[in-house]
Structures are given as structure tokens and as C-alpha cells.
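ok so I'm stuck.
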Amino acid sequence: MAPSSSFGTSPAPRRGVALTLPPLILHPFADAAGPSRLVESSRASLKLQGLLPAGEATREELDNALLEGRYSELRMLFYVGKDLTRWIEQCVEFVTRNHERMPHGITFQSFASLLIHGAPPTVEAKLRKWGVADYKSIFSRALGLQCLFADVPGRQFLADEFVRNYFRYADQLFTSKQSECEFTSVSTGDFTFELYSSGEYSRMLERSWGE
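replied:
not stuck anymore, here's the structure
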């Protein structure tokens, strides 16, 4: 589960009409072999736990398959985190440009909390349509990894123990990031936004240019 957030200070005052933030645009992030590695990793994990027969595979082979899948997960979450961080920085810039209309204390953490714990219903519905059920864990871990890596490290630079349990470290990194400072909590009563895939957003721009 995604770590809960309780670091907000006072709620932002309601303005009657929610302000529209920049759209959140997610780019494709899976490589061609990624899905198959994830499937093999899940099967290897079940075999290591004795929930599926191991067959002829050795424990070392199963562990390697598990690690390859976990590394693919880490790579995918890192690139999701880049998109999320870019969006949050755009939101902070929006607040800075309109500071006279904003309550004090809206920070990076305010929008990270909004995204993970209070996303608009339309955003949640689109994520479910895309088959993303546990988006809160995905987004919080993606943002956590952004605190650690400037770019995706090669597999050879990561310890097996870290790769095997990267999601636990990512959870802690996100919690640490959220606790860096006090911040004003915001909700969909204050701000709203839309979610698009990069291809979907590009097509929308092309149509608008044609009009």
C-alpha cells in the first residue's frame, strides 16, 4: 500500500470555483521486453514461495528472473516519476505566478498529496480504464525513486537486495520527501486537472491546430 500522508498543515481556503491546473501527461514507459519480464518475475516469486511448482528451475534461476522483473518495474516507475515530477513543478510554477490569489504554504508536497490522496474522480476513472488499479502505490513509489536517481542506473550498479525490495525503499523515500516541510493541503475543491496519455494529448493539439 502507498504510505499515508499526514504532513499537511491547514487546509487551503475554498474559493468557490476550483482552479484548473496544467494537465498531467504520462508517456509510454514500457520497453518491448518489459511485460514478459514482469510475468516471469511474478511466476518466479510464486515458485520461490512454494505457491507454484518450481519444475526444473533452480533457486538461483528463479531469483534471477525475479530480480530482472523487479528491475524492469523500477525502470518503469522511474519514468512515471519523471512525468509526475514535471507536472508537480508546473503546478508549483502556476501557484508562484498567481501567488496573490493563493493561500500561503502550497508546495511540491501539496500537489504530490493531491495527486495521490485526492485526485479528481475523472482522473481516477481514466486510470481504472487504463487498468491501473493501485495508482496510489505506483505514483508514490515513482516519486520516491525521483528522490534517489537522476537517471535510471544500470542493473550492474544496483545491489540485489535493493532491487529485490526497491518498493519498500521507494515508499520510505516518498514519506521522507513529504515530511521535508510543513505544507498547506489542497483538494479538488481548490484545484482540478485532467490526465492524458502523451499520444492522446498530441492528437488533441493537432485537432486544435486544425481548427
